[in-house]
Amino acid sequence: MELRNQIPGVLLRAGQEMPLIGMGTATSPFPQPHRVISILVDAIEVGYRHFDTAAHYASEEPLGRAVAEAVARGLIKGRSEVLITSKLWCKDSHPDLVLQAINKTLQ
Q1: Which fold has domain 4-106?
Q2: Whole-angstrom Cα Rg for the chain
Q3: Which residues, at least 6 apart from 56, have a Cβ–Cβ distance to it below 8 Å?
Q4: Distances (CA, A) of 34 to 31, 56, 84
Q5: For the residues of 8-36, what is the DSSP string, one character each?
Q6: Burial of 89 (0-12, 13-18, 19+ CB in 10 A)
Q7: What's the rounded Cα separation, in Å, for the pair 73 and 17?
Q8: 14, 50, 84, 98: which has the fewest Cβ within 10 Å?
């Protein structure tokens, strides 16, 4: 059963719909990246389209790889079908570090 059509959403001011149910990626201890990628691809396959991450969780890169794999497998057409929220970690909140941290997240 696919969740995507069953998850309610809210329209953001930017015009994108945000699913009200998402999947968090924080865990301790953090599994090996290949395992996280597999879990996230499975989540995309069953219909999750909103993922919450943070650099501190060490899940941003595996999430990016999972999205790329989901595209390659035809589960989604592209990155624009997935909403990703992330957080600026406390240690990166110094004015000299913010842009660098955000650029790393976007990468």
Answers
A1: TIM Barrel (3.20.20)
A2: 14
A3: 87, 89
A4: 8, 18, 19
A5: -EEE-TTS-EEESS-EE---SSPPPHHHH
A6: middle
A7: 24
A8: 14
Per-residue pLDDT tens digits of the chain, which is 107 residues long: 566 568 899 999 999 899 999 999 998 888 888 999 999 999 999 999 999 999 888 899 999 999 999 999 999 999 999 999 999 988 998 999 999 999 998 88
**Closest C-alpha to 73, from 40, 104, 103, 100:** 40
- Residue 48, H or E segment: none
42: tokens are: 């499975």
Q: Which residues are catalytic?
A: 57
Distance CA(7)–CA(28), nearest Å, equals 27
- Amino acid found at 36: V
